[in-house]
Structure to design on (191 residues):
């Protein structure tokens, strides 16, 4: 059976009919692809980033983050990726929040390497993000307890260990978080 190519609009309309209600599915060159469900580290890292980014937004009023928002990074055939966090630097605050996907280019994308399929696909994803116009991609690796900063303007990615601080300059000027803090379980989870 040959499957016909889907558009981003068709994918958004039919996503909830996919396995796990499409929670971990993406559209890759017109084909829906079911991804692996992430582990608990994924939720912990998103929680810790959300707290740090919330404090940053309230302090600086510089842009806003969206979580699990689809980014239509390629057209005809369409590709829609769902990074853990997309950070928008302009536009009406939270304008993208309630959409299934957007064609608006964020300044920063944060990917979490919490599944084997994400690890295998990361080079392709970075290339697509950069071609789409995203200036910076942060990769958080809970196995290595590191973060990697891939900036379009830099020739070499920056590796930040758990003993160092991840800094947002120049995209998120003034933002910083200790990499070790990204992996800290909340107090309620330790009980």
């Amino acid at each position: 059976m040959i499957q016909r190519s889907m558009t981003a609009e068709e994918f958004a309309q039919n996503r909830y009919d996919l396995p796990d209600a499409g929670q971990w599915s993406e559209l890759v060159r017109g084909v829906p692809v079911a991804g692996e469900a992430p582990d608990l580290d994924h939720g912990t890292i998103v929680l810790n980033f959300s707290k740090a980014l919330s404090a940053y937004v309230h302090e600086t009023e510089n842009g806003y983050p969206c979580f699990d928002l689809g980014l239509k990074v390629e057209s005809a055939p369409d590709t829609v990726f769902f990074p853990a966090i997309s950070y928008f630097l302009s536009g009406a605050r939270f304008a993208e929040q309630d959409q299934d996907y957007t064609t608006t280019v964020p300044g920063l994308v944060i990917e979490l390497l919490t599944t084997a399929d994400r690890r295998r696909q990361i080079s392709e994803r970075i290339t697509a993000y950069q071609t789409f116009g995203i200036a910076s991609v942060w990769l958080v690796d809970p196995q290595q307890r590191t973060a990697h900063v891939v900036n379009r303007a830099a020739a070499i990615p920056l590796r930040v260990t758990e003993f160092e601080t991840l800094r947002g300059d120049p995209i998120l000027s003034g933002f910083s978080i200790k990499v070790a803090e990204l992996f800290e379980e909340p107090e309620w989870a330790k009980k």
In short: The chain is about 30% helix and 30% strand.
